[in-house]
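Researcher: First entry.
Model:
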Amino acid sequence: MTGGDRGVLDWFAAHTDGRPVTAIPCDLDPDWILAYLKDLGNRTDTLEVLRPGGFDGYSDFPTYGVRAGRTLEPRDVSMNRVERISEVVTAFESFLRDRPELAGTKLQLSQPHPLDLAMFVHAGGAVATGLPVGLALRRSNLALTAVRNLPVFTEAVLEEMREVRRRHGDLIVWQVETPISLLSMVKAQQLGALWALAPVVAGQLAGFLEKVHEVDREHGIETETIVHLCYGDYQHESLLAPKNLAPAVALLGRTGRRLAERGVPVPRVHIPCAYGAHPAPVDPAFYAPLRELGPEWRVIAGVVSTDDPDRSAQALSLFEQARGTTAYGVAAACGFGRNKAEEAEQGAATIASLVRAPEGSRG
């Protein structure tokens, strides 16, 4: 998608189908964290390249380590997006002035989960080969480095979020994006270890969401957060293929309980059903685990394919039947940022048609 920040905002506004919207997204990096990973190669005081990468697929991502004798600090791994976010906010404020009918609409921005940042920075190779868990994790020095340094990444992210809130208040809604959390659950399912890994990964996700909530409360803000799950979508390839939605349900069930215990609001959540170049399945068994997901979760169904509206409608119908209620929202598996313009147009048209369709007639 092109046209600068204002062009992106105008595109989304033009595709709302006249329906009320609560937030409009504007990607800071259409390739998610690619620009960040490239920029880390310039931070040579503390970081060193253990394995170079040209980003020709997941297996070609670089791996960074900490130089001998140096201590990793939050500034070493900061995404350094504060000024860039201010530029987007300026464009968004101008956009709102020109569209008074959208008064009160928020700006939705991507916020990668610190766990994902740590894993892609320190253990890109481990991510590309399918995520080590359990005993394999203990034998993976790269993954262990990522886990040890996770608190540093978390503080770097929170420092940036605090500054953004200080400058821009409640104008922004954060979308916390974490393929690693969901992929860990898929891997655990493959190994028959969901019961063991779900509490750990859910605890990390809930802990970060709790910290985000604390940052907002420091600034007197009660803005909702969105959680975006996915299976990876670089070059339209997924890192792992799910058998069904049990991994997502296991992750969210544990996360929801932890948030409830801490008095933190349960966010809206995007659950992907399509993955990579594969459309959402049309097998009812794939969606059956949704019956176990608590009603506190307002679920956005990631079922839309850009080239098959009929299949998208069938997938949404199966999703809602398993869930036992209408989906809170309808979306693609991983947004439209990496799609061609005509593909994004088709995907947006499919979403609009599904949202318009009467309940019970979606496939």
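Researcher: Second entry.
Model:
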Amino acid sequence: MIENDDHTRRRSALYKIDSFVNKLKNNMSPPQLIMVVFFVLIWTGTLLLTLPLSSTNGKSVGLLNALFTATSAICVNGLVVVDTGSVYSTFGQVIIMILIQIGGLGFMTFGVMVAIVLGKRIGLKQRLVIQQTTHSTSAQGLVKLSLYMVLIAFAFEALATVILTIRWHYEWGWGQAAYYALFHSVSAFNNAGFALWSDSLSPFVGDPIVNITIVMLFIIGGLGYIVVVDLFRKRSWKRLSLHSKVVLLGTGILSGIGFLTILLLESWNPSTFGQLSGGERVLAAFFQGTTPRSSGFNTIDISSMLAASQFLMIILMFIGAASGGTGGGIKINTLIVLILATIQTFRGGGQIHAFKRKIGEETVMRALAVVMSSLVVVLCVSLLLTITEGMLEEHFLEVLFEATSAFSTTGLSMGLTSELSPPGKVIVIVTMFAGRLGPLTLAFALAQKKRLSKIGYAEDHILIG
């Protein structure tokens, strides 16, 4: 009788919890649901990383350090306040790797996989959340897109793991090499930038296999799943969507500019390229020219680079990867839309178009809103860090670099991260969270059907320029 009463109470408690969760989901908009789930995932990761089991010395790393790491992993950032390879145990590193994978693919993608396995139906609310997280323009075909995303991610990560395992097994043996290869493949494809060495990938600055493999991973991940699927399906430049063409063209131009500029500038810098051969300089310039697009890895010391190179990296970090990809920033497609609008304005106005396709005015306004809001956040965070860290004016570039890296979820640092004060850590945590969710929630909010005002106002003019 007592066992039956206990069983009834447990069922009642589970029913109440399930009822509360369903009620909460039904009362939330997709952006709110995304924010809450990411928040829960971050704190789940934080609690796991605070366990003594997660550290190499058997002691907790502390709540704030664990929160910083978990936020950085879920937001696929890469900034760290403690060294991932030496401070966290294998258990802690695996937790970080899982958080990176969830943060890169999106929790709804895994939710779709679970629902399909269990034979459950994907409802309209879930489809809207998937649309929000993948930056899709339509709610049709989202379940198939989610499956493609998982397949693409695991395929590229598995291929890279095999390549890097073969390359590294001479140094560490097959088992350790396979673990290192898997961790860095997941980190690279998801544009997280977490490395198991304190100097990132600097030991491999002249290694073409490691360089090319890692670069290809974070470039493909940064292109966005929609672009990758479009390439696999159509396999013809003419048949690609406007979005895919803009992203591919912009990625090629920015990568070329970054590579050539850093090769030219750093060739005069003995602190970075001084000890490198010609071939190693090309590899280093190629890696550092593409990594600010939200990767977070580096093969030379960022703090030793010339100020001009560092400022270029700030610009590239702010631009970031493409919408729907694993990278951050304002997105390359956003920048190109504003550039096209600016060029058309200089020509006297008229229709904005690219590749014989018209770009709507609402798209331009959304792009402008994303850039302006992102710029305000970066400047405000820079101001706050200057105050909390007591930075003098000669270190302002270092602060701006850190703020941009945190918001754009890039993960590169000039050395300030490891020296952050507790208030500074909190500021960067909030910035990483806002940088990962900001474009998602903002894009969804701007995409809402606009309410037509019943009041018509007389048009007037404001002087510009």
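Model: Note on the second entry: The chain has a mean pLDDT of 84.
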